[in-house]
Every structure is written in structure tokens, then in C-alpha cells.
Amino acid sequence: MEDRLAKVPVVHTTNFTDEVLSFLAKSTQDSFRLDQMKPTVQTHKFNTTWNDQKNHLKATADRYQNVIRKSGNQTVRVTVEDPSTAGKYKLQGTVANAMGSGANLALSGNLGGKMIGTITTIGRDGPTAADSARTIAILQFLQGKKKIKQENPWIERIWLMSDEFKWPEVWSAEPQISSRFNPKSASRPLNSSQTSAVEHMLSQTNDTRITLIQGPPGTGKTTVIASFVQAALRRGQNGIWLVAQSNVAVKNIAEKLADFGILDWKLFVSNDFIEFWHEHLYTDIRSNVILGDELLDPGIVKDLTNCRVILCTLSMLSKRALRDRGITRVVPLSTLVVDEASQIELGGYIPVFNLFTSIRKVCFIGDDKQLPPYGQEDIQDLKSVFEVEHLHSDTIFLDTQYRMPPQVGDFISQAIYDGKLQSNEFHQVTTDSMACYFVDVSLGQEESFGTSWKNAEECKAVLQIATIL
């Protein structure tokens, strides 16, 4: 043990400024507090079959949210009903392996002929790829293996902003692609605020290295992203990575690109998410999808040689396979576009900025007036990038919404956006119409229905209203 400890680099806190120590301390504390919010006990019902030969119980989940994953931190407890005695008892076990919708549980008893009541997982889920990469990054900073102020201008600019900050001079000397943008060349009409957003995303001057775009509901955030990608590709730009916190958000961007006729991209998605559960979501774009297992294929680099745009989740971007297999060498991360950025806790970007020195441009798109970062309700001082005060001056506001009727949009504008949000004047619901009704279905009760819920009385009310319309 002493020999191993002797090889561990010593952390000299006196080598850090108070500002850097505060950043490292808060990042570590936020990560710990978010981990502690993970449930320690989860009980679900599963379809089960018993394997006598292996003494395994196979548990098949009925919903993606119920899936059991293999984790070194967890054990399982199975409630068993014995029809011969009408008694109940509990068995402890572990997850032997898990794939797709099923997991094989290694238990301490024989369950042949028995009925399974509930299966409870005890212990928190293990860290994600992003969690592990974040821990490694902070440790490297503490051990002095990487220098924040000398080697990581993105962290310095976002977390440690000072009047002396300067972007690396060599970046300005690199060849620049024109940021001129003709909105008439886009596949969809763009209003003036959308045009400004695309122009800012295309620009890579020191003043525009970071682009913040606030887009209220229905203001065309994915249209802006697709218009940027279209314009960037026409200029010969490559190394564009489009990411979000959730797989669904990434999928929505991909569908918008396809709608624009843009097909020069690949979408990375984990097998666990798509197989058995969400294949139907990717039907129209399946030819552009690369599963997580396929990223391990030796031929993946050749397949991506001419690819200029990659889509994936922020967690997927932290996976070692992308670097170990040479994927980020073939498609270097030059421009990072983050959708739903207001839902991502600021520390969630640490792994990306630590791992990729090739980044020259970052665009954050979201709306801090909608969903906040996960955990902010319980951890009050969690922030998204939209709450970093010294970045506020860089924010572009998408000022026209096309989704809500003008009457609803105007109310939202006054109540939430200080009157800055305009409504589409050509909306099919005119200002002379009553745009919103509240219907009280007092007798309605929610009832379990398959893997979801239903309210029969509310269904009847909807049908009655539909006949009137």
C-alpha cells in the first residue's frame, strides 16, 4: 500500500489561487450532491423467468425507466411468493449481467415454481461516462497534470473570467472561414433575430468564440441550428458536433437536419437507449445512426473519414471509445453546439473542455426561463451557462414565437420575457378569437393503463369538444 501511495502525485493547494480552488471545490461539491440525489432504493414489477441451470432469474422490464443495469454499487432484493405454503419471503442477490430490456439476477435460492412479487434494486446507479470524466478532470487539475489558466481557455473564460483574460494568439492566426450569411440561402425563412443568431454562430473571432442564444418556446431554435449547419457546410467547415443532454433532443436536431435536406452527418446513440425501446423514433433517420457498439468496430474510422457533422449526447461525447478509436481525430471537435443548454449544470461541460483542445467555437442554445438544470430545485446554487453574469452581454434573444396563438404568446411575453417576445402576426388563430379555455373535469380520476395512465372522463370531455370544433 505504501508503495502505491508513494506513486500518487501530491496535491499542493498552495499552488492554486483562491479563485481556482473555489472553482475546483464547487465543481467537486456539486458533483457529489448530484450523485447523492440518485435514488438508493427502487422497486418495480417485471416479467420474470427462472433458469435452473444457471440459478438466474431473468427480469424483463416493461418500460425503459424500469430497466435494471449492472452496477458494482447495487444489490437486488426479490419478493417471492410460494403457492404451496401461501407464504412470502425475500431473497438477496446481484445483477449477473444486463442487456436491453432484460437483466439476469444471481440469487441465493431456487425459485422454480415460485411467483415473483417485486424486485427492488438497492444502491445508487454507477457513474456515467460524463461523471467519471468530470472526476478525472478535477483530479488532473489538482495534481497539476493539467493547468487551467495555461491550458484551458474555455474553463478560464466561463468560470474564472478576469480582465486580463485573452484567447490564445495562435487561434487568431488560424485560417478563418467567412461568416457572411445570406438568409435567403436557408431552406426555411428566417426572421431578423434568427439571422443574427446564425451569423453569430458562424463567426469565430475572439469576440464571438462563445455564442449564447436564448430561445423561448416556439421561436425556432432547431431551425437556427439547422440553418447554421447548412451555411457552415456550404463554406467548407467541418468538425461540427451537435450535442444535448438527452437522446430525444439530439434526435430532434437530426430530424430537422434531414428536413432541411442535410444528410452529411452521423448520430451516435447507445444500444441501451435505442434497442428494444426506441427504434421507432429513429425510423426516418436510421441510415445515419451509429450504435455505441459499432463505435468499437475497427473500421469505424474509415466510415467517418468524410463526415463533417456528428450528433450525440454530452455523456456520449465523454466516452473513451471516441478517442481510443480515433473518431475525434478523423472528425475533430472544432465547433461545439449545445442544445437545451439551460438544462445542463455548468460543471457538466468540464469533461468536454478538458478532453478536447481542438475546440475553437462554442454555441449554447436554450432558455433559462423554461426547465432549469437537473437538481437546481434541491441544490439552489446550481447554475446553467445562461446564469453566468459576465456572459450575459453575448446573449442573442430569439424574439418571435410561432407556436402559441398571439393572445397566449402576449401573456407569456409580459409575464416571463419582459414584453420582449413577439408573436407571429400570421398565426392561424387571430387576435379576435378566444384562444384558450380551461375545462374543469371534476369527476375525472387517473387510472393505471398498461405502462401509462388514463383519465376516462377527460377523454370523454376531449371528444365532446372535438365534435364542436
TrEMBL record:
Pfam families per the UniProt record, alphabetical: AAA_11 (PF13086), AAA_12 (PF13087)
Domain of life where this protein originates: Eukaryota
A GO MF term: 5'-3' DNA helicase activity
Keywords, ordered alphabetically: ATP-binding, Helicase, Hydrolase, Nucleotide-binding
InterPro entries given in the database record: Coronavir_polyprotein_1ab, DNA2/NAM7-like_C, DNA2/NAM7_AAA_11, P-loop_NTPase
Gene3D superfamilies: P-loop containing nucleotide triphosphate hydrolases (3.40.50.300)
Residue ranges of domain DNA2/NAM7 helicase helicase in the record: 190-259, 304-373
Record domain DNA2/NAM7 helicase-like C-terminal: where: 390-467
The family this protein is said to belong to: Belongs to the DNA2/NAM7 helicase family.
Designated name of the protein: DNA2/NAM7 helicase helicase domain-containing protein
